[in-house]
Each structure stands twice: as C-alpha cells, then as structure tokens.
Design brief:
single chain, mainly beta, 112 residues, 64% strand, 1 helix, two-stranded antiparallel ribbon
C-alpha cells in the first residue's frame, strides 16, 4: 500500500489523515485549564505496511503533573476496522498498543 488514510480526533474535531509511504506527520496542541494546563502530541508515520502513532498526553492540575505516553500501531489493512463513529460516518483504525508509560511527578517527589 502506498498511501494510508484514516480518521483521527484532533482538538475535539474529526480529521482525515493521509500519509504516503515514508511520510511522518507531527501535531500537538495545548491550553490552560481551570486548574493548570494540558498538552497532547501525536507523531504518525507510515512504512508502507503499518501506521505507527507515538503519542503523549501531558498536563498539570491541582494534584500535580502527570505524563502518559506510548506507541500504538495499526496494519494498513486495519485502518478502518476499529471504532465505528456512526454519528459522523467515520471508522477509526484498529490500534494495537505496542508500549505505554506514565510519570507522576507528585508521586516521585513524595518518594513513591
């Protein structure tokens, strides 16, 4: 497959992403919240057979800062085999978790 096409939610909106073999797309956004801040980042890449999403959700609120990150993959033939959003007519990739991580800065400061 030379081109991967799939749906993704970005800033509460539906976006169609198109990647050619060897292409990478990075997007992120962040904002202040009523208790702190939030930031989301995604790096999508396509090798001709698999789409890889390196993601990170970071933020801080009254309980402190926490960062969650990971890598999800989806075979090109499964890019519309995941969640079905019937309201918007979109079918999402069947993402498989390759790795995940979490860092709780408050817990680290407390010695956990």
């Amino acid at each position: 497959m030379k081109t991967a096409r799939f749906w993704h939610y970005h800033q509460s909106g539906l976006v169609r992403i198109v990647l050619r073999t060897g292409q990478t797309l990075h997007h992120s956004h962040g904002a202040r919240t009523d208790e702190g801040w939030t930031r989301e980042s995604n790096i999508f890449s396509f090798d001709g057979q698999t789409v890889t999403n390196e993601w990170c959700n970071d933020g801080a609120d009254c309980d402190g800062r926490i960062t969650r990150d990971g890598v999800s993959i989806c075979a090109a033939d499964r890019l519309s085999a995941g969640y079905d959003d019937t309201e918007n007519g979109a079918r999402f990739p069947d993402w498989q978790t390759a790795e995940t991580g979490q860092r709780d800065y408050s817990a680290e400061a407390a010695g956990y």
